[in-house]
């Protein structure tokens, strides 16, 4: 066997070995990538399974932070007073409507019960009066039951636009808004509109309330108009 034949045989064997090496290497690479893919998939499933718990925990943390900020920044004084005494107190709820107010007694409660009510109603404001009673205040952008059932806009004896419990001639004023420029109204409005205002304009919902108030604000006397403009600014 000469040297050339030996070289050809070696080259053939090397080609076969190289193909085998590439095949084995490729299979190994595919196997490794498949294994890594399965590992990543399992990890993602675990993370996704844990996500609701993480979100729930985050929600609790946020609520605690909001509650702490509310007590610390806004009304920490009365909460501190409540916790220091640890006595049961009479608790009132004062509902302040766009038109009218309503008050009720919630009961005689312990400090923990008072704080629980406070935290359950984030829109309420709390305070302790001179007698030691707790007062909650709730702002409601709606008409009170009294206003809905028997509210009238009219002019009082001083020429103010006022809200009455019943027709204006009964003189049960619920709220006074501003002085009216009666002379301008008499020269600008039809007589039946003025007559209607003197007799009382019945309101039954918030839209009617805002509409009447907006309409007659155009006839507010100058000092009252300036005050209203400052409030708007």
Automatic annotation (TrEMBL):
Pfam families: BofC_C (PF08955). Residues 142-217 form the Bypass of forespore C C-terminal domain. The keyword Membrane applies. Keywords: Membrane, Transmembrane, Transmembrane helix. InterPro entries: BofC_C, BofC_C_sf. The chain crosses the membrane at residues 20-40. The keyword Magnesium does not apply. This is Bypass of forespore C C-terminal domain-containing protein.
């Amino acid at each position: 066997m000469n040297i050339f034949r030996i070289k050809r045989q070696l080259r053939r064997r090397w080609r076969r070995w190289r193909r085998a090496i590439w095949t084995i290497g490729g299979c190994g690479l595919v196997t490794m990538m498949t294994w890594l893919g399965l590992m990543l998939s399992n990890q993602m499933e675990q993370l996704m399974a844990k996500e609701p718990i993480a979100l729930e925990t985050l929600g609790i943390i946020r609520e605690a932070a909001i509650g702490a900020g509310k007590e610390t920044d806004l009304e920490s004084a009365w909460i501190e007073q409540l916790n220091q005494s640890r006595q049961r107190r009479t608790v009132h709820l004062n509902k302040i409507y766009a038109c009218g107010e309503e008050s009720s007694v919630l009961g005689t409660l312990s400090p923990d019960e008072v704080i629980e009510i406070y935290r359950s109603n984030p829109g309420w404001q709390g305070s302790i009066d001179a007698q030691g009673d707790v007062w909650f205040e709730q702002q409601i952008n709606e008409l009170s039951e009294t206003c809905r059932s028997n509210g009238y806009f009219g002019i009082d004896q001083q020429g103010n636009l006022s809200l009455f419990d019943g027709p204006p001639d009964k003189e049960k004023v619920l709220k006074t808004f501003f002085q009216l420029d009666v002379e301008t109204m008499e020269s600008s409005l039809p007589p039946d509109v003025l007559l209607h205002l003197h007799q009382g304009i019945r309101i039954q919902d918030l839209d009617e309330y805002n509409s009447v108030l907006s309409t007659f604000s155009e006839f507010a006397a100058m000092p009252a108009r300036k005050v209203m403009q400052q409030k708007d600014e």
